[in-house]
Model the fold of this input.
Amino acid sequence: MRTVASLFRDGTLSEALLRDLSDAEIEARLTAIPGIGPWTVHGFLIIALDRPDVVLPGDLALRKVIRQRYGLDHLPTPTEVSELADRWRPYRSLATAYLFESAFEAASG
Done:
């Protein structure tokens, strides 16, 4: 977090700069920072930048709800999640949100 804060403070990173980059460019820049991985970047793209076509293939909760909703006999791998999510384009962020919501509803219902 300190490294990220320093990069924002010195102007190396800014919200305006990140908004102008593609998802892949943002992922490359941010994952170059120690401690920042793809899961963090994908969450940032969805939540902070409101990008419409992002999925978190390595997220355990998402993998579990996909297993349940799609009736799979195994926990899908991140690769399988990515392949499945291709059908959700260009709204993978929305599909991901619906799946997360369905998991929370099932847990509280």
Q: What stands out?
A: The chain has seven helices and no strands. The mean pLDDT is 93. The two ends are 36 Å apart (CA to CA). Residues 60-108 form one domain.
